[in-house]
Amino acid sequence: MARKQKKIHHKLVRAMLIQLVLISGVTLLSVYGAAKVVEKVLIKQALEGEADFYWKHYKENPTSNLPRTLNLTGYMERSSHSEPVPEDIAKLPIGYQRLETREKRPLVHVSERYGRKLYLVFEEGQVAKLALFFGITPLALVLLIIYLPAWISYYMAKRAVSPVIKLSRKMEMVDADEGFEIDFSDIEQNADAEVNVLLNAFKQYARKVEEYVDREKNFTRYASHELRTPLAVLKGSLALLERQDLDNRQQAVVKRMHPMIKEMEDLLEALLLLSRDQTPEETSAPISLNDLVEEQLFQIQKINSDKDLDVSKVFENNIQEVIPERLFCICINNLISNAFNYTDQGSIKLKIKDRDIIIEDTGCGIHPAALKRVHEPFYRENRESIKVKGFGLGLSIVYRICEQLGWKLVIESEQGQGTKATLTIPKKEV
Q1: Contact partners, residue 262, CB within 8 Å, separation at least 6
Q2: 303 in helix, strand or coil?
Q3: CA neighbours closer than 13 Å in the CB half-sphere of residue 304
Q4: Is residue 105 domain-shared with residue 201, that is, in the same domain?
Q5: Is 323 in contact with 279 (CB distance < 8 Å)?
Q6: Can you give the pLDDT at residue 127?
Q7: Do residues 334 and 397 lie in contact, with contact meaning Cβ atoms separated by under 8 Å?
Q8: Is 373 part of any domain?
Q9: 351 near 313, Cβ under 8 Å?
Q10: What's the pLDDT band for 407 if we cut at 50, 70, 90?
Q11: Kind plus residue range of the DSSP H or E element containing 399
Q12: Does 98 share its domain with 185?
């Protein structure tokens, strides 16, 4: 596959991580908001209350001591019993504010009564420690309580789907050519009822597919063998006819029978080779593909000698390769035969460049809709009106051969302009 589907395990991990991140984010935002509430509301109210309390006692006793604790320091403007007001604090307006000129950034409440100004400076150091203890600690406990069920949920989900994951991995290893015999005992022991239902369905489907593949192979193999006998009889009968004293019309009929019998022979040979389970037999040493192409071209030209076509070949290089020679000849024969069959006038050009074998004609071409289906067995464009006889199996077999051997076939065509077939034979790695 060009693009792999995301695995179930990865999806579970991703879902759990997203869940934890969202919950953690919400929790942290809540703690941060609570801290701001403490700063803006509780501390402000405490300083205002402290200021009111001091002014009440100041009215009764102007010499009352200013507030001074571990976190709170009081200053009075123009007071003989007070420390001088720091310059940065004295500049602050009436109200509640944070002093940004100092490193610790204390909170300052400024109030004015009786012609005097009271400055209450609150240091947050101790409060920060308390917030750390009473905020972070509960936060850690909350996150632990959240993470633990999330991990348990993930573990249970992973355990539930693990048989499905194992099943998918085993299915990826299935090779239809080698059969569908797979040991599922390790999955069946730990699988839930739903997974066993899926497993049984797969077994039934695999059995049906295997039976279908076997029937197809056997039918193709037996049909190919059975058809050889009547085909041999036809060839013998045709040979006897050629020995008779025939007129021109009868000789023309006999001559037309030869390419049809040859096409049927090639089709049967290709079907028989494709139906075999073993790897097609290759040549013992590299052979010249150029020579094979020339040989097939010569034979097809002889069959189509009545057509006045401009046939040319340009071989820029010589391809030497170890290949299944018979299958290669079947492919080239079909491609060149199609070029001759569908070209009544004009030209046919064969070209070999690098690893490409190109057959190009100026024939009737193929409709875009039909071009998408040329690889389908028995498909013929305009079957009723087409002049060329055949079964529509040629290109289908060529595509099957290419798929089996790792070759590449590209068909390009424009209706009324011609067709270009490019067969690429990759170089085998030593």
Answers
A1: 303
A2: helix
A3: 23
A4: no
A5: no
A6: 59
A7: yes
A8: yes
A9: yes
A10: very high
A11: helix 394-405
A12: no
Cβ-contact 123, 104 below 8 angstroms: yes
The CA distance from 176 to 277, in Å, is 11
Q: 3-class DSSP state for residue 60?
A: helix
Q: Which two tokens stand for residue 120?
A: 């209450």
3-state secondary structure of 117: strand
Spatial separation of the C-alpha atoms in residues 349 and 360, rounded to whole Å: 5
Question: Quick one: pLDDT at residue 391?
Answer: 43
Spatial distance between the Cα atoms of 360 and 322, rounded to a whole number of angstroms? 25
Q: What is the pLDDT of residue 210?
A: 74
List the structure tokens of 36.
């701001």
What spatial distance separates the first Cα and last Cα of the chain, rounded to whole Å? 26
Classify residue 108 by its DSSP letter.
Answer: E
The Cβ of residue 108 has, within 10 Å, a number of other Cβ atoms equal to 20
Q: Are residues 183 and 252 located together in one domain of the fold?
A: yes
Residue 126 in tokens: 């101790």
| Residue that finishes a domain, picked among 67, 97, 130 | 130
Q: What is the pLDDT of residue 34?
A: 62
Same domain for 334 and 414? yes
Asked whether the beta carbons of 415 and 366 are under 8 A apart, the reply is: yes
Q: What is the pLDDT of residues 72-82, one digit of tens each?
A: 889 988 766 66
CA-to-CA dists, residue 338 to 82, 315, 333, 375, 407, angstroms: 112, 20, 8, 14, 19
- Return the pLDDT at 352: 95
Kindly state whether residues 319 and 359 are assigned to the same domain: yes
Q: pLDDT grade, residue 347 (50/70/90)?
A: very high
All residues at 6 or more sequence positions from 7 whose CB lies less than 8 Å from its CB, including other chains: 165
Residue 1 lies in a domain: no
Looking at the structure, do residues 202 and 121 belong to the same domain, yes or no?
Answer: no
Name the domain count of the chain. 3
Structural domain including 264 reads: 174-278
Tell me the pLDDT of the chain averaged across its residues: 77
Structure confidence at residue 284 (pLDDT): 79
- C-alpha 304/C-alpha 298 separation (Å) is 10
Whether residue 352 is contained in a domain is answered as yes
Q: Are residues 316 and 382 in the same domain?
A: yes
Buried residues in 325-341 as b, exposed as e (16+ CB within 10 A): eebbbbbbbbbbbbbbb
- Ordered strands of the 72-76 beta sheet: 72-76, 116-122, 107-113, 95-98
Q: What is the dihedral of CA 192, 197, 201, 204, to 10 degrees?
A: 90
**Is 323 strand, coil or helix?**
coil
The closest alpha carbon to 111, from 103, 119, 101, belongs to 119
Q: In angstroms, rounded to a whole number, what is the distance separating the alpha carbons of residues 102 and 97?
A: 13
